[in-house]
Sequence to fold (159 residues):
Amino acid sequence: MGDTYVQAYFHLVFAVQNRVALIQPIWKNDLEKYITGIVQNHNHKLIAIGTMPDYIHIFIGYNLNQKIPDLVELIKTSSNRWIKEKRLSKFKFSWQNGYGAFTHSHSQIDSVAKYVINQEAHHHKKTFREEYLEMLHNFNVEYKNEYLFNFFDEVEGWK
Fold:
């Protein structure tokens, strides 16, 4: 039997519970390093990670031996516990239920990595809601509004 060769790239997106801006700049890089360790310890290749105060983008070369839901759950539960143990947030921290997982081709690696890394500049142009809905639309993902992340930026007086 011949060798089998597979390469897949996934762009993961998930948000802090209630979209509260709890991820502080002073420990954001440490969180990214911690999540990088989780990804790499499970034989995925971290390509880019972009953390904002209330959500995160993670772009990986995906190891097909682990299911995406299992990887996302591991990242969320481990990083949540790490944040609590380190007492990095003076408020209760947890990630929202759900996530987005989008595939990309090898030819898109550079553009997606730049997009993920440049989240802060990108969001001067679009809100997270606009960005996420655009991703769902571009990937033809059917969704129900009641199951989307909480998008408080559209609530009057929120900002």
Notes: Helices lie at 25-41, 68-85, 109-117, 119-122, 128-138. Confidence is low (pLDDT under 50) at residues 154-159.
